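Suppose you are handed a protein chain with no further information: no name, no annotation, nothing but its sequence. What can you learn? This example shows the usual starting point.
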Amino acid sequence: MVTVSELATPGTRRRVESTLERVVEDNRFTIAVTFPIVGVALLLAGRAELVPPQIAMNPYLLIGANLVMVSPLVAGLVPLLDRRALVGLGVLALFTWGIELVGVLTGLPYGAFSYGVELGPMLFDLVPLGLPVFYFPILLNSYLLALLVLDSPSFLRRFAFTLGVVIALDLILDPGAVALGFWGWADPGGYYGVPAVNYLGWLLSGSVAIAILQVAFDHEAVRDRLERCGFFLDDLVSFLVLWGLINASVGNWIPVVVALGLVGTLLTSDWFDFDVV
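A reasonable first move is to predict its three-dimensional structure. Written in structure tokens, the prediction is:
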């Protein structure tokens, strides 16, 4: 497999990988549990106007916090990034911006929605430039969970399971984000303010995005890395802690049940060996 080591010196690559792994491994509980809990406290304090919105909803603080929580996923992926994977992720980033621009301009495929808070620099003053930082983890964590749960999955089984987890994560994310005012729909739906068309849109966009992932990565190499890398799915833990608690705080109980179901999946998997000490 042609790796990124052809684009940088092998020694430099190994040092970067080793440093990332050491930092994440030494701070697993802080990154995966403590950090999202602090984030929940800050976001809810901002919602209750106990903290100025310039702090609680600071776009650069939000992006920075997300980058910290996603660091286990990044550290897990770095050794797998060959040219095919990098091209695939580049195509996925373009698709992410493109589908969001179409959504904001036309209302398709997610329904007419708009952002309620600033999420960093905006592309064409319409969608956040940092959108892949938020979108990629949903897709990649779903893909990793599919590889973890399914035994030697076929293309179709892996695709269907990944898509199902993507939809489940959005069933958790969107109600919490609406409650915080991150975004909302012109015609709110019955699912905690989220319209059904949003999930039809996710079926469409998620299918395209997952197809890109299927082509971009060597599935056996990813599965082998997942079995050897104890923190690879810690970002999924962060996501479930953060959005599960936010939904619980506002009484969105269906998203909480979905989050608990995914927590149960992790707890019963061979991957789970989380050391809280």
